[in-house]
Specification:
alpha+beta; Phosphorylase Kinase, domain 1; D-amino Acid Aminotransferase, Chain A, domain 1; 2 domains; six-stranded antiparallel beta sheet; five-stranded antiparallel beta sheet
């Protein structure tokens, strides 16, 4: 495998071409952003931590029958992945109420959401990634009805795998964001699963163990990311 030109650079990752047309290298950066990139900073070794955590979780999900874009970890910061066409839909799964849903609906912080709630957001930074409905998805031709149904089924299955995994490690999976892509007509889980894309609360203390520490200036950001890595890969 030969790494080629950079195909894309996002807020947290760079994507590079390879000599294989259906494979790319995903490079994890230390850059941190919040509030649609209005807040920017750096979390030291975040890229290394997120690559290792994502590798562990993609492997776990593959073992559970969830197809992902993950192929293998190449280095501390690099992952070989299938080259997918990302669907412009972010899927958020909520097990407890926190973040934007509290502001929108006036819910109590930490309210248990059972069964889990699935929300869709239009993946467009210029619009602030707005909340959308299935009718919006159909109107804008973002995905077919069958694809939307698959996104919901896959997201719930991922939640069923990850919740007990983190529970066993003393962590509550509060909510998380997923991105999916198309590869040879198949929907694959893509992007990453990490403290950047999930909210974790320590079961014993309630301490936040994710990017909220950066968003809310809670301190101990690097130490917390490292602790999540220790628990996930122990």
């Amino acid at each position: 495998m030969i790494q080629g030109d950079m195909l894309y650079e996002g807020k947290a990752k760079k994507i590079f071409l390879t000599d294989q047309p259906d494979e790319v290298v995903q490079y994890f950066k230390d850059d941190a952003t919040a509030f649609n990139a209005q807040k920017k900073g750096t979390i030291l070794e975040k890229g290394i931590v997120n690559n290792k955590i994502s590798t562990r979780l993609f492997e776990l999900l593959e073992q559970a029958g969830v197809a992902t874009h993950f192929l293998k970890k190449l280095s501390d910061r690099e992952m070989l992945a299938r080259r997918v066409k990302i669907l412009p839909i972010e899927v958020v799964i909520r097990n407890r109420a926190t973040g934007s849903i509290i502001k929108r609906l006036g819910l109590e912080e930490g309210l248990v959401i059972d069964p889990p709630l699935i929300e869709f957001f239009y993946k467009d930074d210029s619009l602030g990634d707005p909340l959308i409905t299935e009718d919006h998805i159909r109107m804008m031709n973002l995905a077919t009805s069958d694809q939307v149904a698959s996104l919901k089924t896959l997201s719930l299955k991922i939640n069923e795998v990850l919740k007990p995994f983190f529970q066993e490690r003393g962590m509550m999976l509060v909510d998380f964001k997923l991105e999916f892509g198309l590869w040879n007509g198949q929907i694959l889980l893509a992007d990453e699963i990490s403290p950047d894309t999930c909210r974790f609360w320590d079961i014993q203390t309630g301490e936040r163990m994710d990017k909220d520490r950066f968003r809310k200036d809670l301190g101990r950001i690097e130490e917390t990311y490292q602790e999540v890595l220790r628990r996930v890969c122990a």
